[in-house]
Design goal:
The structure is a homotrimer of 268-residue chains. With 268 residues, chain A is α/β, with parallel strands linked by helices. The first copy, chain A, is 41% helix and 13% strand. In chain A, helix 5 links the parallel strand 4 and strand 5. In chain A, helix 5 runs parallel beside helix 6 and helix 6 packs parallel to helix 7.
């Protein structure tokens, strides 16, 4: 962790979380195609706050090969994990191309694989096999629960079962789907408000809540989850331009969580 | 077209469109002032997906001259056409400065000119003359139909007439106005939903639908138009940060259009 | 002021404002963590249009020290003032760390200090003292009125008193709070519409309206304030990517204010 500009002068109002590499308090950025100098800018400033960068949906297929290699290498040089979106693996499955997909991803330098069924349906066995094959190649595996289609309801019992099966199969983290919009999907109602009972049900389903990562693209969602679950909550689908703003929320350096931190201290 | 990172492994679920230079499946980006390194980042990654960059409204007037020249040269070096917003030409017309406007635009390196009447009223003859003068200097001419003022209704019959007159006068493409917001303007209702009947009417008015370009700043609009008109639809006013996301929609590399592609294949 | 690309060809439809350094027509950008090359890109293009850059809330605490120094130096080299968000000073006050906060800010190169009470309550005397201490170190002082919590009403009489007290204490400008969202805060209703009567009341409270700066993150708000108060209005919390778009509004180079400018000329 680099020296910070106000070290020794100002203390974070909310307690921090462990430094990287960490298993709680992780942040995953949703990358829709940051350029190389933009990626360098971001990491130079905020690498300590970023655990994963996801090249969302199938955007990884759209890069010139050499540029993709260079970007992945840059991200890894800052100690950040990087993976293609789950939709891309779903496409590979529909094309019967999982092994060559995993081999290519490995050759390009990706460190993680996401296994999801947000768009297509995958059988339990097929899902477990995909996890195993990725693990066998040395990838970290992240899985996702929840459908992208807003007309498909989110079944809590099914999601809980799947989470536990994925963890048993070797997944490091399970992401709860909220898409890029955060509205009318997974735990969020059409206005983007958190369904607190559903959140509690999912947390109750797992032995260790730190294995869950919540997609929370909107600031109100990030704030809500931090206030309910603490600064050490795992948050995903964060827009890259919001990385310092999220970190400020986590640390109480922003009005919304600062107010809560002061109230807890019985302060001001 | 450069080699892509997953060539030979994954196939696009939706059929592609022709490589550049192309007359269908074009993408026009709305540039509100990308810096020089940001522009380089964008083009290095996505030049194959971009046909036009528009320096929106009168922003071209606000650049230091040498920076504007350098940015235009950079864009052209990637085989992308570049032009100032139509509002800027409208200002030139109100100031009786059309010839010097065109000369300056040419000297700066712009390759296209947009002729519109989104804010001011222009007579038929004046519009035709503007098109001719731009053509005479060697510019590609793009025209636009539709008013920016949300209180002015969009007259389909008038728009159809104007589209055909513009094409007869030598315009390469006609853009249908949706502004940066995409709401309550042209073919979109105040919530940004497409008026499908109006779309059909406009398409019916032209011999070749490929001459139309639809401003579609919102993802839901891009998706809707791709699903109705195919991957080869011409789309404009795309935010630069969305260029890979749009390309993913066009190729079926994103949940929304992937689902439709699979349904058509009778697949998964 | 650098030469502009269409100088001598097109005239701004709305009258301009004085060149920098200026006391009216100022623009303050809300910076949530622009990287170094992005900042360079922005300033190379638009430094003449930017008077202040605010590192919003407590983001200044999150930078690696050397990167923060380099970014501040870059901003200053373009003649732009730079300061940490008011929330950060509020945190310093709750931690009894105001003197060391000001010293560190000075050492890092910040040129301004914002004094606010958006999240915590500060007594009149404490506020005056903070202003004095910052002035004594050579900072320009900007204060802010208005609470960030949407459940706390905006008291016009209190705000007017505070504005005048701040100016008497040596503040150069007083900002009227609207947050990053611009909705349900200060002068804006929950839809982000301006409460015109409240605006008039605040303007009436001060001898010189140029000392007020209006946070106006949304385009509709910028447009409304420019049409009511003129191109020379001071506007803050502008997203950096909108800087040319705002300048186009100020100059009448965009449909919305162009229409108004032409109507006033009795033109077109």
């Amino acid at each position: 962790v680099a020296e910070r500009a106000f070290d020794g002068v100002i203390t974070s109002p909310l307690c921090g979380r462990p430094p990287k590499p960490r298993t709680r308090g992780q942040t995953m950025l949703l990358d829709k195609g940051l350029g190389l100098s933009e990626t360098g800018d971001l990491l130079e400033m905020a690498a300590d706050y970023v655990d994963f960068i996801k090249f969302t949906f199938g955007t990884a297929a759209l890069y010139p090969t050499e540029l993709l290699r260079a970007k992945i290498a840059l991200i890894r040089s800052y100690g950040v994990d990087v993976y293609p979106g789950g939709t891309f693996l779903e496409i590979a499955l529909t094309q019967g191309a999982l092994p060559s997909y995993l081999d290519r991803a490995l050759a390009l330098g990706f460190t993680c694989i996401e296994v999801s069924d947000g768009t297509i349906d995958i059988g339990r066995e097929e899902r477990r096999t995909a996890i195993s094959q990725a693990l066998a190649l040395g990838f970290t595996v992240i899985t996702e629960v929840g459908k992208k289609d807003p007309t498909e309801p989110f079944h809590l019992a099914e999601a809980s079962d799947m989470i536990n099966a994925d963890l048993a199969a070797g997944a490091s983290k399970v992401i709860v789907e909220a898409r890029e919009s955060g509205k009318g999907v997974g735990l969020f109602d059409p206005q983007g408000n958190l369904k607190a009972d559903d959140l509690a049900t999912l947390i109750h389903a797992v032995t260790d809540p730190d294995v869950l990562m919540w997609e929370a693209p909107l600031k109100s969602q990030q704030e809500d989850l931090i206030l309910r679950l603490g600064s050490g909550v795992n948050l995903g689908n964060i827009p890259p331009a919001e990385v310092l703003a999220l970190e400020a929320l986590r640390c109480g350096f922003r009005g919304d969580t600062l107010r809560a931190a002061l109230a807890r201290q019985g302060g001001n």
